[in-house]
Amino acid sequence: MEKVLEVKDLKISFDTFAGKVHAIRGVEFDLYRGETLAIVGESGSGKSVTTRSIMRLLAKNANVDSGTIMFKNEDLNKKDDKAMQKIRGRDIAMIFQDPMTSLNPTMTIGKQVAEPLRKHEKISKKEAMNTALELLRLVGIPDAEKRLNNYPHQFSGGQRQRIVIAIALICRPEILIADEPTTALDVTIQAQIIELMKDIQEKIRTSIIFITHDLGVVANVADRVAVMYGGRIVEIGTSEEIFYNPQHPYTWGLLSSMPTLETQDSLYAIPGSPPDLLDPPTGDAFYPRNEFAMQIDTEETPPFFEISPTHKAATWLLAPQAPKVTPPQEIVNRHQHFQKIMKERELVQKKLREV
Amino acid sequence: MKNFGKYFLKRVFFMVITLWLIITVTFFLMKLLPGSPYANQEKLSPEQIEILNKQAGLDKSVPEQYVIYMKNIMKGDFGTSFQFKNQPVAKLLRNRIGPSLQLGAQAIVFGTFIGIILGLIAALRQNTWVDTGATLIAILGRSIPNFVFAVLLQYVFSVKFKLFPIAGWNGFASTILPTFALAMSPLADTGRFIRTEMVEVLSSDYIELARAKGLSYWEVAFKHGLRNSLIPLVTLLGPLAVALMTGSLVVENIFAIPGIGEQFVKSIMTNDYPTIMAVTILFSALLVVVILIVDLLYGVIDPRIRVSGGEH
Q1: What are the residue ranges spanned by the domains of chain A?
Q2: Closest-CA residue of chain A to B304
Q3: 8 A C-beta contact, residue A51 and residue A207
Q4: What's the pTM value of the predicted model, to 2 decimals?
Q5: Which GO terms describe its molecular function (chain A) (predicted)?
Q6: Of B169, B151, B167, nearest to B102 (Cα)?
């Protein structure tokens, strides 16, 4: 599969009055054409900072300390602001969290949707408006031609998020970054927006980076999932692998704290609190909250251990010398389910080969 | 549009009521002022004063005078000045309002324009020396009285460099220095307002979205930031515009401008009832009209408070 984006060894810190906050501490991932990669993790784990650094929309006190972001054979970290402006909105576009505040209240939506096109392409006002109209229809705004001259306050939250999506898609970007696009919406509207995004991805073959802390949403949209903790990716794999064959204790915790219909007792919560990134712990950042932590977790940062060609996790539990541990019951159930799926799949493939 | 017409008529109706209230209250308050129009003219004998009072209708009871006055202004008759060469008040003001209005308008346009630019630059270059400089200008403009600026401007530009006439009312050149002097306070106020507002607007989500579209910093500031930070400014501008257009006594005096401010104070000192009333009516009429304009401007700038509304 063709890589559209390759992030390597990304380190970002913020200068604050209290000191340097090491928000991103060596993030690495690839994004393939047409796929949806979900980045999950709790607040402060660095999901938003990672994606904002791809767009270079970081706050002024941010420093990119190291790393490369390869896009179309060029390192985005080496580009100047002018060059980044040409990429933003055209090659890489973004959808934000709160549709109630992410549209300009004093500009008609027609103008707002057409704006990236007017900026990036030599196109007449009329043509741009026509394309904007097309996009508004595509994202499902009813009576779009009548509503081009309306202002954001005349639309509902769900419709506004559709408009934001239209803005992001108007230049047919290669990469769409969606920063918790459904968090601020009602559950029913969430489902509609997710359906819309899947639908559109099929139509224009864009790659999506989907940031969320809602694992239910992830299961619904993502081809692959990256789990972030303390400024690093701790586990990455296909949705199936992350949901049914998780290996990192943090992923176990995340999945166990997700409510299901069978949840009867109180919901599981990971004990402790996220690491202080002003002074990040050595070793595995998760060890203070990890009931399976070993001596080495406090001393050395675990490397990625490969579980399958698509699945790797950074935990010392996967080291050959590590003792065998029994994950929580919930996870054991998931592993069994995974084994079952894999067996069935093998059978199917075997039969296919015979045929 | 039908909604708008209804709204407009309603507003005009309330404007008339407001004006009537102001006229009535001012009329009776004015009668409470100590002294009478001719009392301080020592050359007149008591008999002569009585004749003059009778001629001006001042011998009647105050309510009677009020009814007569109201009837007269309905007909557009504002009476005759007691002091200024017995001229009709309307004519007196007509000659005087021009310079005051012109100066005020020039000052407000110049002041807000420069103020907006100053505030914008300060906000966009937040916490740099540019920002500090702009803040300093705003503080000076706000705290130093405009007559001090007036004298300073006269000294520098007229006495030292001889660029502009020092005083008088002869053509555009003579309006420049008084305009600068008057513009300082709107400039300072606008600058401060725009800076605060712009800093807030620049941190909002739609600004980030605009950046994500690939717009440059300045495009974002002008296309998305400016209009949204103008909304509170409009509130400030209304009363300020009236204050400036109705004349500034001291500045008009320093530059020897035949404006209305000077006349207003003189008329109060001499109990020149018709002039006091006429100037009050003029000022309040200007104020209510400006307030209406301000309310309509809100709608132009911010679609969310537009009266006619759109379809939902």
Answers
A1: 1-91+216-328
A2: A153
A3: no
A4: 0.82
A5: ATP binding; ATP hydrolysis activity
A6: B169
